[in-house]
Write a structure and sequence with these properties.
The chain has a 10-stranded antiparallel β-barrel with strand order 1-2-3-4-5-6-7-8-9-10. It has 3 helices and 10 strands; from the N terminus they run ααββββββββββα. The protein has helices at 2-16, 35-39, 176-182, and strands spanning 41-51, 56-68, 72-81, 86-95, 100-104, 108-117, 120-131, 134-146, 151-160, 163-174. 14% of the residues lie in helices and 56% in strands. By secondary structure, the chain is mainly beta.
Length: 189
């Protein structure tokens, strides 16, 4: 019995670690994502969380205000969940290299590590989540992909001990006034 349990855990750990996507896979892709440019100002996001079986567990909308001081991008995220819960997270993301970032937020354990390449951003961090009344330490492996017209798609894999607990999918879009100012979303003449 113990042998069977150990075998199942080993297989699950191996399956959880099979992701092969690397940030360098996106060199030269367009549109080029410059994190601090994209998130400066107002951005809105729509998201869902699905458990590892594909069941929709939560839906939410996020209003984001970003400020860039030349070194640090501060993101004030206001979450509005479909069940009525509200939450806030404030990220302080420091640019530490041409394409490298470190980030901190009150519910993030340690620092988040991120890197851009072409149209992609890869971001990993650990966080305490309240799951059914218990605080659980989980790992996020976050991938963001900038699309044309200022839309960004975000897919985050949530794991514990290498076993996938679920995925978060978000779609970001710059606020309407900012899209109009920058000309994003306009058709070419």
């Amino acid at each position: 019995m113990l042998y069977r349990f150990a075998y199942v855990v080993t297989v699950l750990l191996l399956l959880g670690g099979c992701q092969s996507m690397q940030i360098d896979d996106f060199k030269g892709t367009t549109p080029k994502l410059v994190l601090e440019d994209y998130f400066e100002g107002k951005t809105k996001a729509w998201g869902i969380f699905e458990d590892r079986f594909g069941n929709l567990r939560r839906q939410f909308v996020v209003d984001i205000t970003g400020t860039w001081d030349g070194t640090t991008l501060t993101l004030d995220e206001q979450f509005d969940y479909a069940d009525g819960e509200k939450d806030q997270r404030i990220w302080r993301i420091e640019k530490v290299g041409e394409n490298s970032y470190v980030g901190r937020a009150s519910d993030v354990i340690g620092t988040a590590q991120g890197q851009t390449e072409g149209s992609a951003f890869s971001w990993t961090y650990e966080m305490e989540l309240n799951i059914q009344g218990h605080d659980v330490k989980v790992r996020f492996d976050d991938w963001m992909f900038l699309q044309s017209d200022g839309v960004m798609v975000n897919r985050a894999y949530v794991t514990k001990f290498g076993i996938e607990l679920g995925t978060v999918t978000l779609f970001f879009q710059k606020a309407s006034a900012e899209r109009a100012e920058t000309g994003e979303g306009r058709e070419a003449a």
